[in-house]
Each structure stands twice: as structure tokens, then as C-alpha cells.
Prior knowledge:
Shape: rod-shaped
Distance between the termini: 170 Å
Amino acid sequence: MLRRIATQLRNRRNWPSYIGPLVGLVGLILTIWWKVETKINTASDKADMAARDLYNYKTHAAESYTTKCGTKEIKEEILGAVSGIRDDVRHLATRIDGMHQAQSKARPRTTRT
């Protein structure tokens, strides 16, 4: 029993010998965590930059290019204008034909005395 008490006392005196390895282990863990945290922050910064670039590209594309709906509207306006011009040309052609027919009719000649 005295031996057991003596070994327990001796073990209690040796606890400072565990401090060195524990400090080293904690330092290793903190170093690994610091490296991981740095990589996470770098990846986060890259993701933010990519998101910003994507937003700028989308804004540029929306400002510079037209949509399908916008193209359809413009196409309908152009086709409407072309059909209006076609109708005007047809109407003008019938008027010109009418003027030629009126001129080609024989006019009665009058003689002056």
C-alpha cells in the first residue's frame, strides 16, 4: 500500500512533463487550423470575385443584346411598316393607272373659227 501511494505521488510530480507535448500538439492543431482558415478565406474571396464578374457580365449582356420577345416585337413593327408601304404603293399604282386611262380616252376636238 505504501508503494502504491509512493507511485501515485511520483506520478503527480511528473505531470509537468506532459505540458511540453501538449503545448506542441495544441500548436500543431492551431497551425493546421490557421492554414485551413487561410485557404477558406482565399476560396471565399475568389467566389466573391467570380460572382461579381458574373453579375457584371449579366448586366452587360442585358444592356447590349436584345431578348427574343424584343426581337419579335421589332420584327412585327418592321413587317407592319413594310405592309403599309406595300399598300401605299398599290394605291399609288391604281391612281397612276387611272390617270393614264383618263388621258388615253379620246377627247373631242373643237375647231375654232
